[in-house]
Amino acid sequence: MGLLAQGTALDWPEAKKYAQKVREWGIMQLLEVWKKAKTKERDAMLWGDEIEYLVVVYSKDEPKVLLSLRQAEILKALANNEELTSAGGGACDAQRACRKDPLPVFHPEFGRFMLEATPGRPWGIDFKELLKVEPDMKLRRRIAKDHMLPNEHPITLTTFPRLGCPGVFTDPYYPVSGPKLRSQFVPDEIANPHIRFPTLAANIRSRRGRKVQVNVPVFRDLKTPWPWRDPTVNYDLHNWPEDDDVRNGAAPDNFIHMDAMAFGMGSCCLQITFQAKNITEGRQMYDQLSPLGPIMLALTAATPIYKGFLAETDVRWNQISSSVDDRTPEELGEKPLKNDRFRIPKSRYASNSTYISTDPRLRPEYLDPNLVIDEDIRAKLLEGGMDDRLATHFAHLFIRDPIVIFKEDLEELDLSKTDHFENIQSTNWQHMRFKPPPAGENIGWRVEFRPMEIQITDFENAAFAVFLVLITRAILSFDLNFYIPIVKVDENMQTAHARNAVLERKFHFRKNPFHVRPSRGSAAASGANSPTTGLSRPPTPFGPVEDEYRLMTINEIINGTAYARSTMSTYTEASVAPGEMDDGDRLCDDEFPGLIPLVEGYLDSVNVDVVTRCELSTYLDLIRKRASGELWTAARWIRHFVDRHPLYEHDSVVTDQVAKDLVGAVLAIGDREESGRGFKGLAVPAVPQLLGEFRGGC
Ligand code: ADP
Ligand code: MG
Ligand code: MG
Ligand code: MG
Ligand code: MG
Ligand code: MG
Question: I need a labelling partner for 607 at 20 to 30 A (CA). Which of 296, 399, 408, 478 fits?
Answer without folding.
Answer: 296
